[in-house]
Write the structure tokens for this entry.
Amino acid sequence: MFKSKEMWLVLALVAAAAVGGFLWLKGNEMPQLGRNVVTGQIAVGGPYALTDQDGKPRASTDFGGKYQLIYFGYTFCPDVCPTTLALMAATVDKMGTDKDRIVPVFITIDPERDTPDAIKKYVAAFGPQFVGLTGTPDQIAKVEKEFRVYAKKGPVENGSYAMDHSSVMYLMGPDGKLVSFYDEATTPEDLAQQLKSKL
Ligand code: NI
């Protein structure tokens, strides 16, 4: 059907572009897809150095060999963040003997308002096991980029604003590498089972 070598070359290039485009799309959209997809090739997450709710420096390697269940949000969030943090707390509670092997971590996407003090009050409402992290706008921007987090300031109203943001829980291994990630549309029982199978 195709006689010329040129035609095969064109077909090969089209195929390569299609595969490349698919991988690019997969890489960019992955955090929105959610739900327990293990990524072999795409690097998500990375080492970070932020400040915890007590104002102390906290790096991704400062978790004593434990897993981290990380969620990015902000303390002024009216709905999704509190729902997800409550889910994380309930999930960890249901992990039985694995409970102490995983630390729920909240990282703010709103460093302007989320000072260590604000975060301390916020995460305390969900349980003493939570670590809450903030940083300079530059530090937060870097972490967001590494975790492919989408976060954008919404319209200002009465001098206040909201953040539009992606909602994904990332399970990071003791080595600081991504193990899996999950969206919030699940139950504590279901998520606890999924997490236990990964520890
Ligand atoms: Ni939120």
